[in-house]
Amino acid sequence: MQNLIDSDFETLEKCPWGGDKTAVEFLYKDFMGCEIVRCKKCGLVFAKKRLNKTGLVKYWSDYLSRVHLHDSTAVDKRNKMYEIDYKLINEYVKEGKILDVGCGNGSFLKLFEINGYDASGVEFGKEAADNASSEHKIYYGEFPKLAFKDKYDLIIFRGVLQYVPEPKAYLEKGIELLAPNGHIFITAQPNMDSLCFNLFKENFTQPVTGVDFIGYTERLFTGYFTAKRFKKVAEKYFYEGTPYANIEEDILKVAKAIECKRENKEIGFKAPAFYGNMMSLVYKA
Ligand SMILES: [Zn+2]
Fold first, then answer.
1. Domain count of the chain?
2. Which of 60, 132, 191, 251 could bridge 106 with an S-S bond, Cβ 3.0-4.6 Å?
3. Would you give the distance in Å from CA 236 to the centre of its chain?
4. What is the largest CA-CA distance in the chain?
5. The domain that contains 256 carries what CATH number?
6. Residue 213 CA to ligand 1 centre (angstroms)
7. Among the listed residues 61, 17, 53, 11, the one whose alpha carbon sits nearest the alpha carbon of residue 32
């Protein structure tokens, strides 16, 4: 990755969800010194200082090889999660056109293609988009600004909304592109209402940082989609049965963290995978 400099960052004066200047609660500073806060009005967790457009292009330009494909066990585990996610959404959408927003190199997309869906993807990272284009139908660029000819029966945001600067622009674009009775699937989404995030904060499995700059709760999404006349049809928090779960060890780690908190000591270790950490939500138009 090219080095990040001061001009690659921006500072937010307003909550990126509500769009208003509200009181915030300070939570912690991330590894780049970015201040992470929680909006007292809506509950969104966000980085007040974060990468701006130039910083993001730098960061994502080589993400695929630098992070995503770096560790082969991590890739195997992620592939297993793709199957778990696929199984959930397949209960609701069994065929048709799907769009995977933030599809990376297309591994999740591929599961849908194999199973007979007409699948396309959107990717902001140049390297991943180029890589995916050789095998899949890919739109390269910022989702809200792209033009599409089709409507989709399913729009997927898998582990992606924490990275988008204007989350509502992404969700609105998703709604605009949805076919009648279509579904929106938000999954692999870190849950800021979870026991572990509130306990471990910057040591959470996927903390909010100047790069992963927005953290959501189920309440925020459901409030948003309910106002748009969508219905929540599924709400899951995958943990047991995932390749990340090591239940006894995980419980011990969480217990140790609770002990540290009670004794006012710093929790100097990473949160384990745990109940409630990650959410999967399905909304129907
Ligand atoms: Zn807010």
1. 1
2. 132
3. 15
4. 58
5. 3.40.50.150
6. 14
7. 11
State residue 116 phi and psi, 5-degree precision: 90, 5
Q: How confident is the model at residue 2 (pLDDT cuts 50, 70, 90)?
A: low
**Domain range for 241:** 77-284
Q: How many A from CA of 185 to the centre of ligand 1?
A: 23
Q: What count of other Cβ atoms lies within 10 Å of the Cβ of residue 32?
A: 15
The pLDDT tens digits of the residues spanning 113-141 come to: 999 999 999 998 888 899 899 999 999 99
Is residue 14 situated within a structural domain?
Answer: no
In this prediction, residue 73 carries a pLDDT of: 83
Could you give the CA distance from residue 110 to residue 116 in angstroms, rounded to a whole number? 10
How far is ligand 1, taken at its centre, from the CA of residue 22, in Å?
7
Cβ atoms within 10 Å, residue 130: 14
Instruction: Report pLDDT digits (tens) over 37-66.
Output: 999 999 999 999 999 988 888 887 777 676
23 C-alpha to ligand 1 centroid (Å): 9
Q: What is the DSSP letter of 67?
A: I
- Strand ranges for 141-177 from DSSP E: 152-158
* pTM for the structure as a whole: 0.94
CA–centroid distance, residue 222 to ligand 1 (Å): 15
C-alpha to C-alpha distance for 35 and 51, rounded to whole angstroms: 12
- What's the confidence (pLDDT) of residue 4? 85
